[in-house]
Amino acid sequence: MSDRIPLMAGNWKMNLNHLEAIAHVQKLAFGLADKDYEAVEVAVLPPFTDLRSVQTLVDGDKLKIKYGAQDISAHDSGAYTGEVSGPMLAKLRCAYAVVGHSERRQYHDETDELCNAKVKAAFRNDLTPILCVGEGLDVRKAGNQVAHTLAQVDGGLKDVPAEQAETIVIAYEPVWAIGTGEVATPEDAQEVCGAIRGRLAELYGQEVADKVRIQYGGSVKSGNVAAIMAKPDVDGALVGGASLDADEFVKIVRFRDQ
Ligand SMILES: O=C[C@H](O)COP(=O)(O)O
């Protein structure tokens, strides 16, 4: 039994404005209030425009819910129109910054090199990166999911020292399972999450590898989360669509009750 604390994170993607965000987080707080969920870390990943509202609510009501951004600039300041920097996110007391989500890789051509720069930008600003990796359907059909995903892990962690690497969160998200209702089997998830931990052990040693939290993401719901979480190398979930329904996300957070 590992002592890694599971991280259940809701990636809202481009949904919920800053007023809807407040109502949503209030519902989450209410849904989790009667339950000691100390043993599970809960985070929301709203759009940038919601972060200040979420911060105010979390601070004001002393909520245990953490929050973070869905992306981070590789640069800390300067002429980078449209980007949001690590110092800005740190000032909002974000805990996390997602890096290399497959939608960023697909629609914004984010490379492993850029993801690596973003991972370093997050660490430089005391944010924990959630580095997303995972294969598309063609790679899966060819049976190359492990090699493909490990190459993304190598790229994202290039020149990241062990003392930072041990705090990173890696989210394994098979692209074919995102938003499709196609959930990977728990065995599929374990195969790649286990391989990721193995690679971390090769890169940094077993002690570091055992500290890193590895999430699964892709059509996670209250009905499938418990079986996925039962796998030894799965330490949480990165939840998209189902995190927009507060009641459903609360059930996912309470996966041990399912
Ligand atoms: O970041 C979350 C993932 O892309 C999963 O999204 P989904 O739960 O809607 O499949």
From TrEMBL:
Keywords: Cytoplasm, Gluconeogenesis, Glycolysis, Isomerase. It is an enzyme of class 5 (isomerase). It is found in: Cytoplasm. Its EC number is 5.3.1.1. Substrate binds at residues 11-13, 179, 219, 240-241. It catalyses: D-glyceraldehyde 3-phosphate = dihydroxyacetone phosphate. Pathway: Carbohydrate biosynthesis; gluconeogenesis; Carbohydrate degradation; glycolysis; D-glyceraldehyde 3-phosphate from glycerone phosphate: step 1/1. It comes from the Bacteria. Its main location: cytoplasm. The active site is at residues 101, 173. The keyword Ribonucleoprotein does not apply. The keyword RNA-binding does not apply. Pfam families: TIM. Homodimer. Belongs to the triosephosphate isomerase family. HAMAP family: TIM_B. Involved in the gluconeogenesis. Catalyzes stereospecifically the conversion of dihydroxyacetone phosphate (DHAP) to D-glyceraldehyde-3-phosphate (G3P). This is Triosephosphate isomerase. It comes from Streptomyces javensis. The gene is tpiA.
